[in-house]
Amino acid sequence: MLNFFVKVAYALIGATLGAIFLPSLFELLSVNQLWLTNAYTSALIGAILFYLLSLVLTEPTVRSIKWLEERLMKAPVLDLLFGTVGMIIGLIVAFLLSFAVGAIQFPPITDILPVILSVLLGYLGFQFGFQKREELIQTFTRSGEKKKDGVQPPSESTASQKILDTSVIIDGRIADISETGFLEGELVIPQFVLTELQHIADSSDSLKRTKGRRGLDILKRIQDDRQTVITDEDFDDVSEVDMKLVRLAKKNGGVVVTNDFNLNKVCELHNVRVLNINDLANAVKPVVIPGEEMRVTVIKEGKEANQGVAYLDDGTMIVIENGKNQIGKTLTVAVTSVLQTSAGRMIFARPRDVKAKN
Length: 358
Fold this sequence. Notes:
6-stranded mixed β-sheet; nuclease; single chain; 358 residues; PIN/TRAM domain-containing protein; 11 strands; alpha/beta; 5-stranded parallel β-sheet
């Protein structure tokens, strides 16, 4: 059915172009036959020529239409809305300019130039509305906030988008941080992150399934606490979720929120701002200095010979020298050194009454 409509469209376009241009062309070629210079005859000739052309071009045209349809279905509604508004404004400008063009008493220009202006300005208007949608939204939002509250809204750097990745949602601490009010700006959950989270929640592995469901519960908790945005914006040419997050943050000027050490490094390589929850957790942990003593319970054997492992209440691992034989016991240890990275903090200690070996 679509093929039929495409052929009819080609014929109608040919008839229109034939009625407009062929009489002038015949006059230019000094063709004196009245039946050829007649508009109806010219329209029929144009329709026939374009119908024959459609026999070759119908299949490529149908494929292009279907490709465009798929792109439109995947595009976010907000993008299409602003693009359409921009295109309408462009067409209105082209319509107004056509009156000025009509003053030119030269038929080829007055017939062709309005069409060119409509196509060009309509396209430019669509691109402007599509590419500048975020700036337009921020402009209208700030203007509305200023009129409503009578105060200056927060700057773009303060209220930038915070884009959450899968790991930080499953981790759950982001909900507590959000509730404290330390995390300003708009929280954005990309649909591709939500899809990955749903796949984890539907996993056959019980551990992954539990993590996925926990992540969905955390998202619901965040949504109940503050306004969040689920964006449908995606990048079909990229399969990795991490790279999609990086590109989304680059495009919208947002900040990636994560506790994934590798994603943290990738963001830094792409000059994308990143907030690492582990860095924040490490920053607010009590400072431990070498020589300080603490009471801990040895839980298990360490990786190296004669080592024991204990944990603080905040989950910090303590590696205890000569602690292998103290498993299950509570003892006082003295801190010897502290290793702190974006992946976490590790404390090295030895029992208070054990001297270091030379």
